[in-house]
Request: fold
Amino acid sequence: QVHAVESGGGLVQPGGSLRLSCAAPTSIRFSFRTMAWFRLAPGKQREWVASITPHNIANYEDSVKGRFTVSRDNAKNTLYLQMNSLKQEDTAVYLCNRPGDFFDWGQGTQVTVSS
Reply:
């Protein structure tokens, strides 16, 4: 299987911050591809959160605009998600992948926002 390894999740209070990392598979030509973060909350379908092109053009789902920032380090094959002003509704497993040409999904990293 070819999958990413996500990390950086945890338990945080509302209003807090976390920085997620995604180590992408070395076989996917990371620096040439748009990459994205997704999340899966209990009882919900997986949803797209943010994406970033090879030239660092970022797009965000409306509910996270102004709070989340996606970035990438092509030299390290790594994708990041800085999450600020976290809300309870951000609670989910966060995963990364290559939109339009998914590789195998990893386990993701759990983010729990709770007081």
About this structure: The first strand starts at residue 5 and ends at 7. DSSP finds no helices and ten strands in the chain. The mean pLDDT is 96. The two ends are 37 Å apart (CA to CA).
